[in-house]
Amino acid sequence: MGFDVKSHDHNEKHPVDLTGVSLVFISESTTSGNITNAYKDCPVPVVNCETWTYDDMGFAPNDAGFNNAIGDTLKIVKRDHPITEGLAKEVKVYNEPIILMTANNFGRRYGSFGNKD
After folding, report:
1. Residues 6 or more apart from 70 whose CB is under 8 A from it?
2. Full-model pTM
3. 36, 50, 70, 74: which could join 56 in a potential S-S bond, CB 3.0 to 4.6 Å?
4. 3-class SS string, the chain
């Protein structure tokens, strides 16, 4: 796609130098405690796949239960934003999952899942 990718270890001091950077991508596999809110006021777009930083970044309430909610629907709270323009107030994001595997007997913490459809 024409991007030069600069990877950084999650154990580095964050935020890293963003000179010449067009986008920050935070992997789900990072340790959230090393990232926390480092990119909250970032001057470039951030794609954040590490859900345990959502409270630190201001995407979710700062409480112990936000990341444990089970559901299939996103509630759109700012419908006039270019990313959410045209979406309904609630958007179903997946159908009932099927479990393909789990890790270390963690029960509902799925290592891999898919949709029945």
Report:
1. 108
2. 0.57
3. 36
4. CCCCCCCCCCCCCCCCCCCCCCCEEECCCCCHHHHCCCCCCCCCCEEECCHHHHHHHCCCCCCCCHHHCCCCEEECCCCCCCCCCCCCCEEECCCCEEEEEECCCCCCCEEEEEECC
Q: What is the pLDDT of residues 29-77, one digit of tens each?
A: 888 888 889 999 889 999 888 888 888 888 777 766 665 666 778 888 8
What CA–CA distance (Å, rounded) separates 83 from 53?
A: 21
**Residue carrying structure tokens 């067009």:** 22
Say how many residues make up the chain.
117
The token pair at 38 is 């480092």
